[in-house]
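Problem: given the chain below (375 residues), write out its structure.
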Amino acid sequence: MYTITLIPGDGVGPEISEATRRVIEATGVPVKWDIQEAGEDVYNKEGNPMPQRVIDSIKKNKVAIKGPVTTPVGTGFRSVNVTLRQALDLYACLRPCISFKGARTRYENIDLVIVRENTEDLYAGIEFQRDSEDTKKLIAFIKTATKKEIRPDSGISIKPISVYGTERIVKFAFEYARKNKRKKVTAVHKANIMKYSDGLFLEVARKVASNYSDIEFEDRIIDNMCMQLVQKPELYDVMVLPNLYGDIVSDLAAGLIGGLGLAPGANIGDKMAVFEPTHGSAPKYKGLNKMNPFAMMLSGVMMLRHLGEFSAADRLEKAIASIIEEGRYITYDMKPNPDDPTAAKTFEVADAVIQKLKVSVNSDSHRTLNTGTEH
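Solution.
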């Protein structure tokens, strides 16, 4: 029996979390759910979107799956996701983007893995508010130290990239590639401009790569990488990136396979792992039961593999792939016309997947969503 922390999230999170819980249970894997609430609703009640009890639950259980959580834009509390990753040192964000037959997309046979550093870079949360005394002092220090002036009405964010953080994320990418028989790792950066931060990332990546002679290594500048992915994604395999670039490129790669509704994710540390869909909480759709649950279900597939439940993971992934290929029980976002009255509700997608799990699914036409971190 596995005890797993389940964080339903907010917005559409509870709906897709319930659908995911049902399909995981339908695989027959014995799970006891430790349900923990976090997010905007909890913030409104308790003044803290990520109570300590949630973090303690994950520390105890070692594995969690969560629905999306609302992050206010520009104001309000800091990102729950960022808080969680930093509190638990979930330094590796793993986001595979793999084509499914039947998904609406301009591309075919996409098979990319984004490995994103999760704890440093501009998402480290080191910020200085406009007009604060600390900001004024920082602006004065920078003027003295660099002879460069920052406008006095500026807000400032700090971009730390360390040798330690870079070594472990690049090593994670190479170990994942080796374990999953991948051929190439591409380090993505902007070292031509930010020579002391991205330059350090590239320097360390090259040193780590020298220990993996069995895997091809290359690097790309981030803006060129985005163009390359749109033009010729077949040239790339595993990509390792600093935090901000990884966030952006993982959404770009999701666009190649049909959207965020098909993009699972995992946040992995040395001792714990939290699985979650890549997309946001879409609060305007809350309660409508129309949101696509596949990204969270596929995150559940990754979680099952992480637990070593390979047969159950394979059966669930094949069931999902079969539903997508048939195109009957899919949500509005996967239909050619989003107003299609035949679009399935979230719970109907779960019903269809569960039904597929009851019969043999023989299709095995795509790569699997491995975490590379199985227990």
